[in-house]
Recover the amino acids of this structure.
């Protein structure tokens, strides 16, 4: 099966085997500033290169933005993909590839991948939070994403968070979890504290190198993330909580300490684990979506 990952920076496609292993992979920069058609052309080119004209089976896609589960169109997207809101991804790629296309949000796809071939394997109920430039989340129960009425269930990034009152979330409001516990949040908090404008990754690197202010910024973000996840466990009752994304490694030490300190006793056996598929999570999960069909989650066309 073919899985495609459309992100604001890069687009990837992979040929995925029946056990969730990546057999071949293609990647290219996402031409986000050139508009949706250019983004779709890039995704289709990468997928077609792997397909080689063989077969007529569906292709799965995980994409940035909120996806309408009925149609595979984008309900809402941030400026990381300008003009992406309203794009009929499933229909447009189905025309380009001449085969059915199933589409879901990229964090949903990552969760499906981890539940198939990663840290969530053999777990029926999983909460996954992806900590990257922004912050996303999703819930998988019995192998199916809980999409919600608008395809946006599990968006933990927009929960109120103490300490984030001066920090702006990607949605435009202030005080949300994403505004503090994400790469963008780390950068913004460090800029407020020091006046220096650097990336979230650079903040994490400085923290690891002994920068006191960077260490405070990272630890505060991790602590707030961990405490929030402990509360979500009581609300959602998962078997395991997975933390994925490029900023996960920096935040996990403080997040784990806060998680175990705040976790209610009735859920003391729910572990907080690092996801294991890394950059392959979305393409693997998208391939799983293609394999199992729209009943997992995701719009379909073709």
């Amino acid at each position: 099966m073919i899985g495609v990952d459309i992100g604001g920076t890069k687009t990837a496609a992979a040929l995925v085997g029946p056990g969730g292993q990546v057999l071949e992979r293609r990647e290219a920069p996402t031409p986000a500033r050139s508009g949706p058609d250019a983004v779709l052309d890039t995704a289709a080119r990468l997928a077609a290169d792997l397909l080689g004209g063989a077969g007529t089976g569906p292709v799965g896609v995980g994409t940035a933005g909120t996806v309408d589960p009925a149609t595979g169109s984008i309900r809402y997207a941030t400026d990381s993909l300008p003009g992406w809101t309203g794009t009929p991804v499933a229909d447009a790629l189905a025309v380009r590839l001449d085969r059915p296309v199933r589409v879901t949000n990229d964090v949903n796809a990552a969760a499906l991948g981890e539940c198939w071939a990663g840290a969530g394997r053999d777990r029926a109920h999983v909460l996954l939070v992806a900590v990257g430039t922004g912050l996303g989340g999703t819930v998988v129960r019995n192998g199916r994403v809980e999409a919600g009425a608008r395809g946006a269930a599990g968006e933990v990034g927009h929960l109120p968070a103490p300490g984030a009152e001066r920090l702006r979330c990607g949605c435009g409001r202030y005080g949300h979890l994403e505004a503090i516990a994400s790469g963008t949040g780390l950068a913004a908090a460090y800029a407020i504290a020091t006046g220096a404008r650097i990336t979230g990754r650079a903040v994490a690197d400085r923290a690891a190198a002994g920068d006191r202010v960077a260490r405070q910024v990272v630890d505060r973000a991790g602590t707030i993330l961990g405490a929030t996840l402990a509360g979500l466990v009581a609300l959602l009752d998962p078997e395991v909580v997975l933390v994925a994304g490029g900023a996960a490694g920096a935040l996990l030490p403080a997040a784990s300490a806060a998680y175990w300190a705040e976790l209610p006793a009735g859920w003391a056996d729910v572990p907080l684990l690092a996801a294991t598929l890394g950059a392959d999570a979305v393409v693997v999960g998208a391939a799983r979506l293609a394999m199992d069909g729209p009943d997992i989650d995701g719009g379909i066309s073709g």
User: Anything to note?
Assistant: The chain has two domains: 2-109+280-301, 123-276. The longest strand covers residues 22-29. Helices lie at 36-51, 89-97, 106-117, 183-194, 200-208, 212-236, 248-262, 281-292. The domain at 123-276 is CATH 3.30.420.40 (Nucleotidyltransferase; domain 5).
